[in-house]
Amino acid sequence: MQTGSQKNLFKFMAVRPVQITAPEDAALGFLRPPTEGRSEFSKSLERAKSWTEAQSLASTYIRTNGYPGSWGSSDPALAFLKQVHSALQIGAATGDLDGLKKAWKTLQPQAKTLKLGETRTRLWDTLLAAYFAPRVNPRDRGEIIQALRTLLFVDVADTLKGGADVVALLRATALLPAWCSRSKFGEKPAPTQAPKPASKVDMAQINTLRREVVMADEALDDLELSYAQASRSRQGTPAVRTSTGAVSVESDSRPLQTQVDQISTSFKPATVSYLDTLDRGWKLKDTQQVSASLENRRAELVNDLEKSGGRKASEGMKSRTAMPTRVSPDLQLEPLALDSGSAFEKSMEGSVGSVRPLGVGDLLVVEETLLGYREGEISYIENVMSTEHRERIHRQLDRVSTTTMTSTETTEETQRDLQSTERNEMAAEVQTTIRNDVSLRTGVNVSGGFGPVVQVDTSADFAVGNSTETSTANSSNFAQEVVDHTVSKLTQSMREQITQKVLTETEETNKHGFDNKSPNHVVGIYRWLEKVYKAQIVNYGKRLMMELVVPEPSAFYKFGRDGGAVEGMIRARPEPLPEDFGFQELTPSNYRYWVNRYRVSGVNPPPVESITTGKVLEIPETRHDPKGSDYTLTTKSDSIEVPEGYLAKEAWARGAWVIYSDQNENKQISGTKLIITVGRKPINKLDGDDYASLNDEERIVPVGVVAYNVAAYTINVEVRSQRKNATLAAWQMETYKRIVDAYNSLQTAYDAELEAKRVAQSSALTKISPDAKRGVEQVELKRACLELITGQYFFDFDATRDSAKPFGYPEFLISQAMEEGAYSQFFEQCFEWEQMTYAFYPYYWGRKSQWVDNSTETDDDPVFESFLRAGSSRVLLPVRPGYALQVLYYLNTGEFWNGGEAPAVDEELQAAIAMEAASAQDVSLSGGRPYGKPWTYTLPTSLVKLQADATLPSWPQV
After folding, report:
1. E strand or H helix at 771
2. How far, in Å, CA of 281 to CA of 628, rounded?
3. Per-residue pLDDT tens for 909-938?
4. Residue 39 to residue 49: CA distance in whole angstroms
5. What is the pLDDT of residue 711?
6. Pick from 364, 358, 290, 694: nearest CA to 549
7. What is the DSSP letter of 447?
8. What's the pTM?
9. What count of other Cβ atoms lies within 10 Å of the Cβ of residue 331?
10. What is the pLDDT of residues 813-824, one digit of tens each?
11. Do residues 16 and 914 make contact, with C-beta atoms less than 8 angstroms apart?
């Protein structure tokens, strides 16, 4: 039967469960290792207790034994298999099974002289080793699979029935024993765990910092305790004096406040060691300097703790005065107790996410073939009575009305004797049907290359025997539904055009004359012509289909759109003040951290903890010769200023004096006195006193000296004043206000600049074309799918370095770039990303905290609006032909099979996928196979035809 031209109407992908392999196909489609006479290496692999142990055994085997010799080696068995394989290839190419069997008969005698059984065992052992350790001595392993296929031919040569059997044998897939699956070892390729302490949260570092905080606390305790003991030990302890004649000079070796080295003798060895690590010259400093140094170091440690592990890492260590007991230096923190944020373990190969094969997708194309034309309904009837002469003139007028608003209205009717019709109306209309009706009805974005996806079974978790038949029926129904719906729309459109009333004036120059001179009436019946088409579904290949569900696919895009992406373009966002941050949190040792953090200006330094002030009281020498009851008495009064905001706490009086002596007996005159009063406390110098505890005097401390029979003296009086709590609180409140004001100022500036960037970015986003929006959707879904498939978060892809020497240009590390390039190249090539199909699910399948924001997203593009609102998205992703086994191997092991065809594990689903992958090579885009039964349909045209007679048409009643 001669037919008209043929063309493609549309494509679609029919997804069905993987079909279980029939036993007759399994005999030639799979290569299985022998169960009898297994090698010790194979048994040791099966006995391995873990995947790591099996990898170690495999690595050792490859390094020790290497790979079998290549086809061109001197190994007689391999050379023989090479010859047989060449004959196999010729037989498959020519389809000449008889010629292949003749060639085999000439080679068969050699097989009896060779130890093919040992060769088979060695090949399987090597393949097993390569499966467990693919990166050890990597090379093309395709020859191993080819040799095993040839050995299978040696076993079944006499049972082959045709050329198709030879082709199936040459495409046989190697199936390793089921115990090779990683899951059989109780292990799975583990995805990246999150959150997990990494470089940002290092528990060892945190505990080291905590222990040093405790050491700083102990050093401060030693300093304070030793200082207090030395100060109070002076009361009631005689001074050491040297006398020369009547002169007494106080040479007190007891420590003053500024003499740290003299009180360090009571420090613990750990304190001395710690101070030595901080500052080798600490003994030359006074107590205030050493105390401030320790406090500053302690504040730095606490801040480092908060940066490393959050505020919980520094709990109990922020304030020394708030702790009744010290924290143990051996305290350990659990990882999950830390506010670790988003810290992820870096990974590349060996990390696999959770993804499952959905089934097999058949790429189907609906082809139409024009069978011919047939007469349809009556267009109109022309009646000419006997002896009637009639003439008809058609006048055509095209009227164009133009207004000043440049709006043009055109009214036109086309009616011609020479009729014509469009050839592409069906192909164009069917694309509209798919784009509008199918995609909107299913909620799926239609792939540009594959068209819509038709899923045969919604629960395609495992292979079913009748999947092909079910797929054929469902696919045929879908294709016929699309075609019939399109034909219905075209027919309705044609009918509307035929019956439409057009308000135009028509005058044609053609004159139609009817001159019936016969005695009979003439009836002319005009019929519409209809096109008759045959439609046939053609299968153009198979793809392994993966199914993934992506949560909130637009989350990262909206983060960038709403400011996350522009933060790097502007000033750094000020770190928020802690919720519990108050003025009590500020201390003289940590306030610099907050000042530097928010760049606070005009901050006064904190009032020092204590201030020492003093006066020198002296009486010049007076000459007096005591006789009898004569005596000399002198007094001196003064005051020592107490700084504002401080209280006088302690006083010291030291000096030198000259006492009158009895010249006759060369001894001190009895009754001599030297008393200094500081505030309300007396200090009797001749009794050895030099210290007094004061009564919290403010502003001034009065000082007086009474000297009885003392010829001269010089007394140094020192008063140590302690800072009042109110003084520190006032400074804390003032500094706190300045810090808060500085933070608010930084936050306001940041918000203003960020809002300006957002407005500019939002304005730019409104100009994105629909094609660009499809690109955004696909890129975001692709990134999320890769995270689900690989179980990693792209942390390892950092081969490029900024500011490389000597010019400061960005450069990349070559070795690292090679590793990253191979990884990214595999995933970019193994999936047909451009053909993925996706559907967006409503907002309530996402985080509940984002319901309001997600549900109110708007956009002019309805598909992009669904993307912005989606709580999750279902993605159907086809595996590129030829990569199914490589993807399956990666999902099993987390590693790449680099070289030749990848083997599969002898499990039902994996074996079925392997068979589908092999049969997918039978079909290419250059030619397809009929899929299901053809059907016919008709399309109306604008053509009319005069019927040969006046018989009215009739159609049989159904």
Report:
1. helix 770-790
2. 58
3. 778 888 777 776 655 545 677 888 888 888
4. 18
5. 84
6. 358
7. B
8. 0.58
9. 12
10. 888 888 888 888
11. no
